[in-house]
Design a protein that fits this description.
The structure holds two protein chains of two kinds. Chain A is of the alpha+beta class. Chain A has a seven-stranded mixed beta sheet, with helices on one face. In chain A, a hairpin with a 2-residue loop joins strand 6 and strand 7. Chain B is α+β, with helices and mostly antiparallel strands. Chain B contains three helices and six strands, in the order ααββαββββ. The longest helix of chain B is centred in the first third of the chain and has 39 residues. Chain B is rod-shaped. The chains are: A alpha+beta, B alpha+beta. At the A-B interface, helix 1 and helix 2 of A face helix 1, helix 2 and helix 3 of B.
Chain lengths: ~140, ~150
């Protein structure tokens, strides 16, 4: 039994070739988009910054007495918010869904607070007042004499 | 179509079915490789995190370090035995919301005392020893070893 088609074999092979080209271009575009999104992303930097600050808070808590630590990293592209149970880092132009948060546990009598936005150097300061201990996050220029 | 043409069309169909599946797997593997690389860039050894948290146990008065009630001077690595209990540990020093956070079990070897945080279930991932602590019991000071058992996550 013969099956009649409206196309001849030459037309079929041209259409198949076009289809193959479209698939190849689509795959290249997808992989390029994934790679570009990763290269532009600052998520890894934000995560490292949040983890460093989390460790700094735990270190200051574990040391008796007052102390002042400067973060050895440029934080001028970020908004950093410290409160009594977490540190959150976000890019200045990023949306709220891209915020990176790290938690910590403070002992009794400890309070943490502070916000920086676009500060190149940030400092974490621990101060005692009677039985209360305070951790402040601020721009380092505020702590210079 | 003759038999040869039918064979060609069928061959192309089978080829594209297999090639489409393989290409999809390759793109997925590429995305997973990038995500894995990003995780490697931000990974932190749990031993480091646990060590920094554990610093507080022997060094600050809110945990177990002895503090002179008259001068308020803190003596790091001198454990006040009157504070070495689970109630003080949980309410004043360190407590967690669940087992996905780092939990600790503390043990004074020579005094045969052990306490633990509220979500510690003896699932030790590492031990962190602090040798050469002094334990203050009333007016007596005795040397001891503070063993800190670490449970990273269950």
């Amino acid at each position: 039994m013969e099956i009649y088609t409206t196309m001849n074999t030459k037309a079929e092979s041209v259409i198949l070739m076009i289809f193959e080209l479209v698939v190849v271009i689509g795959v290249i575009a997808m992989t390029f988009q994934i790679a570009t999104a990763f290269a532009k992303s600052e998520t890894a930097v934000k995560i490292n910054l949040a983890q460093d600050l989390q460790m700094m808070v735990n270190t200051l808590v574990g040391v008796p007495g007052d102390s002042l630590v400067e973060l050895p990293q440029d934080a001028s592209h970020f908004i950093i918010i410290l409160n009594s149970n977490q540190i959150s880092v976000n890019g200045i132009e990023d949306s709220e869904s891209e915020i990176v948060v790290r938690n910590f546990v403070l002992p009794a009598g400890h309070t943490a607070s502070g916000t920086t936005e676009g500060s190149p150097k940030i400092c974490l300061k621990k101060e005692s007042s009677g039985d209360r201990k305070y951790l402040f996050l601020s721009d380092c220029t505020e702590n210079e004499p | 179509m003759n038999r040869k043409a039918q064979f060609e069309v069928a061959r192309k169909n089978i080829y594209w079915m297999i090639a489409g599946f393989i290409i999809a797997m390759i793109v997925l593997a590429f995305a997973l490789t990038i995500a894995n690389y990003k995780n490697q860039l931000t990974s932190l050894p749990p031993e480091l995190k646990a060590s920094l948290i554990a610093m507080r146990f022997a060094n600050i008065p809110e945990c177990f370090a002895y503090q002179d009630p008259e001068t308020y001077r803190v003596y790091p690595r001198i454990i006040d035995l009157s504070k070495f209990n689970e109630e003080h540990l949980t309410q004043s020093c360190y407590s967690t919301a669940g087992t996905d956070e780092i939990n600790f079990g503390l043990e004074l070897l020579n005094h045969h005392l052990s306490i633990k945080t509220n979500n510690y279930y003896n699932h030790d991932d590492m031990d962190n020893f602090i040798p050469e602590v002094l334990v203050k019991d009333g007016d007596q000071f005795t040397p001891d070893v503070l063993v800190i058992h670490v449970q990273v996550k269950i």
